[in-house]
Request: fold
Amino acid sequence: MRVVVAGGGIGGLWVALSLKKAKVVLVSPKEMDMANTFWAQGGIAAALDPHDSPLLHYEDSVKAGGYFNDKKATMVMVHYGPMLVNKLVQMGFRFKDTPHLEGGHSFPRVWNVGDETGRRLLEFLDERVRQRGNVERIHSHVVGLLKEGERVVGVGLEDGREVEADAVVLATGGYAALWKRTTNPPSTVGRGITVAAEAGAYLTDLEFVQFHPTVALTDPPVLLTEALRGAGARIVDGEGKDVVNPLLPRDVVARAIYRFRREHGEVFLDLSGVDLEGFPMAKGLAETFGLRVPISPAAHYSLGGVRTDVWGRTNLKGLWALGECACTGAHGANRLASNSLLEAMVFGYRVALDVENDISEWPEFRFLQEIEVVVGKGEEDLRLIREVMERCAGVERDEEGLMEGASRLEGVSGVGGLARAVIMAALWRRESRGVHYRRDYPYPSDSFRGHLGVRLRSIR
Ligand SMILES: Cc1cc2nc3c(=O)[nH]c(=O)nc-3n(C[C@H](O)[C@H](O)[C@H](O)COP(=O)(O)OP(=O)(O)OC[C@H]3O[C@@H](n4cnc5c(N)ncnc54)[C@H](O)[C@@H]3O)c2cc1C
Reply:
């Protein structure tokens, strides 16, 4: 059996390592730092302590998610966590002895290697993949899916080559770099998601994008970890007065900073009460800015993506997706900190199990409503896309801004189609829920307690 796995982040590498019998073709660009995984600071959440439990982790996750989670997916995620973190340790990966407590978690369960968890993990997994005899690596991008009837039977690469396969697995990351200010590497623009959707896969929850509140006003933007606030950092104005309680949930803090900046002026992260020895990133910034670092929110994590079931199966036979490019529903309307590396590992493991079994049933997804978004032809204009997303689909949205965005992106090509789909989904959801905040509909509404299914139609 031959399996194409696209993506060199934690999701793709974990699938490749978990496939035991198949011959694996792993497609990803050469640069490791193009994966969000490389930049992950906090760690992986998993309930390993005897006084903690997956059930407590479940409760924290659905509370953060605004009880909008797919309960089965969240349950699967938290229950597989301890086993997979233990597996990493058995493979020789070294976490620090004491897990962190992060915002929204009721127990210290975030396993880490200081603020370098992502990079260390990626280097470790990459090395393990190199040692596997059944994995061939191709440094390239998947630009299309090959289909025979309704079945996906391989991928097209950017150099024109085609690779046939019995199964195709996408772990190509999210789309938060469609915004101008982002914590993600610039290539995280949802290319894999767009490719899947153009082949007929359903996308969902695209409107749910998490904005990280404390991101330095540097170019590129640098994330100042949540742990700094736990260690005593304050969020203040130019005169040193508190702007918002720094320990409130991420989305509440992000909105408070956004509004203060719009109505009053600059906001800073005041590091004067923090021992910076454990925070090399913040220490470096303090050398440039002093102990008050100017901040504003930036697009950080995309909750939406290719709709999958709890085995990572999409609606297209032969196509699986996982990690940030997928939407299992495990995070609901807001992701709990450090649950995303976990989600990628858990569903990577399950996808590998599923792929090596003979699958005859594929899911049929039902949505509250479905829409189709047309992707235009011509050059992809990332500069325009980013400017529009930043202006029209940011921390707070309203109908006027979203309509302007939809019209400015009409007929755009490539990932512009995905960007426009995000805007259309945000326009459709006339309520505020989790990380999706509509200024003109500031409360949740029972009429929108469900999901929008999105398909892309290319006119290329
Ligand atoms: C600054 C920062 C800090 C974070 N901190 C944490 C944290 O502490 N804990 C936590 O749980 N999460 C954290 N996250 C989120 C987490 O890093 C990501 O959600 C997770 O790493 C996603 O893994 P992935 O494998 O799905 O995608 P990625 O790691 O983004 O990997 C995607 C891979 O696919 C490749 N690719 C893209 N398009 C194609 C294509 N068309 N064909 C082939 N390959 C393609 C990319 O180059 C990359 O190799 C953080 C994110 C950022 C940006």
User: Anything to note?
Assistant: Residues 71-90 form the longest helix (20 residues). The chain has a mean pLDDT of 95. The first strand starts at residue 2 and ends at 6.
